[in-house]
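User: Just a sanity check before I run the rest of the batch. Below are the C-alpha cells for the first item. I only need the designed sequence back.
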C-alpha cells in the first residue's frame, strides 16, 4: 500500500466524499448540515481548521435513515452499525474504498478514508427524563465499546472485563441504544446522540435545524443549519477565538492507497 502522507492529499479525498454526499442529498431531497469542527472551520477560516483533518456532517434522523439505505457511488460506500459486523463506531461513515485508514484507537478495525455522518435526534423536554436517558446511553456505549475493542479502552481493567462479558451481544446493544435515543414525536430540543461523549450541554434548539443555508467550505458551497451561530455558541462558546496551541489536536491515524 502507498502511504498518504500529505494532509492536502488526504483533504482532497475527504472533499471528494463530501461533494458526492452533497450532490446525492440535493438530488434526493435529503437534508444535511456541515457541523462540529468542520463548521467552525467554515465560519472562522473559510475551510478546514488549519490543524484539522476530518469532516463531520449532521442529518436529521429521518434523512439519515433514508441516506444510509439509498446512498450509492462507484468509489464511495456508506457503512453503519446496522450493516457492518463488529462495526467499531456508533454512527455512519462514508468511505473511499480505494483507500485504507489505520487509527490508533481502533486496533484491528480498518476502513477507508472517510467523512462522519451523525444523526440528530429529538431529546425529551423534561430535564429529569433527559438526564436519565443520557446516563443510560453513556453506559450502553461504554459496554458496547468494551465488547468491540481489541484493547482496554477504560482506566479500570475490572470494569473492562465486566463490560466485555456483559450478557448482551453487540447487535442487542445496538437495538437497545436505538430504542433509547430515537424519538418519533418532535420536541423543542435536539442532540447528536450516537456517542457516549455528548452531554446534556450539547443539546440545542430544534429550531436551529429547521432549514438549511449555504456556507462556503474550501471554495465550494455546501449546506449547514439555519441556526448555526446559536449551535456553535452553545456547543463551543467563543468559537471565533483560536484555542491555545496545546489544544489544537489532530486525529491519530495512518492512511494509504490500496
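Assistant: Here's the designed sequence for the first item:
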Amino acid at each position: 500500500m502507498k502511504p498518504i502522507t500529505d494532509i492536502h492529499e488526504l483533504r482532497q479525498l475527504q472533499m471528494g466524499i463530501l461533494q458526492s454526499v452533497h450532490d446525492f442529498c440535493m438530488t434526493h431531497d435529503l437534508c444535511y448540515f456541515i457541523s462540529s469542527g468542520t463548521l467552525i472551520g467554515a465560519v472562522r477560516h473559510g475551510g478546514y481548521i488549519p490543524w484539522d483533518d476530518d469532516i463531520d456532517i449532521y442529518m436529521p434522523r429521518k434523512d439519515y435513515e433514508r441516506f444510509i439505505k439509498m446512498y450509492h457511488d462507484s468509489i464511495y460506500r456508506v457503512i453503519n452499525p446496522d450493516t457492518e459486523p463488529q462495526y467499531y463506531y456508533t454512527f455512519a461513515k462514508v468511505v473511499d474504498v480505494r483507500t485504507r485508514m489505520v487509527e490508533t484507537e481502533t486496533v484491528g478495525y480498518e476502513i477507508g478514508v472517510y467523512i462522519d455522518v451523525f444523526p440528530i435526534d429529538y431529546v425529551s423536554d423534561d430535564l429529569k427524563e433527559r438526564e436519565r436517558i443520557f446516563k443510560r446511553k453513556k453506559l450502553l456505549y461504554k459496554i458496547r465499546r468494551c465488547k468491540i475493542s481489541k484493547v482496554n479502552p477504560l482506566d479500570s481493567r475490572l470494569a473492562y472485563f465486566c463490560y466485555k462479558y456483559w450478557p448482551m451481544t453487540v447487535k442487542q446493544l445496538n437495538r437497545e441504544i436505538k430504542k433509547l435515543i430515537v424519538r418519533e414525536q418532535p420536541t423543542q430540543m435536539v442532540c447528536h446522540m450516537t456517542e457516549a461523549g455528548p452531554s446534556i450541554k450539547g443539546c440545542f434548539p430544534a429550531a436551529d435545524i429547521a432549514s438549511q443555508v449555504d456556507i462556503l467550505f474550501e471554495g465550494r458551497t455546501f449546506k449547514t443549519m439555519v441556526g448555526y451561530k446559536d449551535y456553535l455558541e452553545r456547543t463551543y462558546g467563543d468559537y471565533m477565538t483560536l484555542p491555545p496551541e496545546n489544544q489544537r489536536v489532530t486525529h491519530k491515524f495512518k492512511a494509504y492507497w490500496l
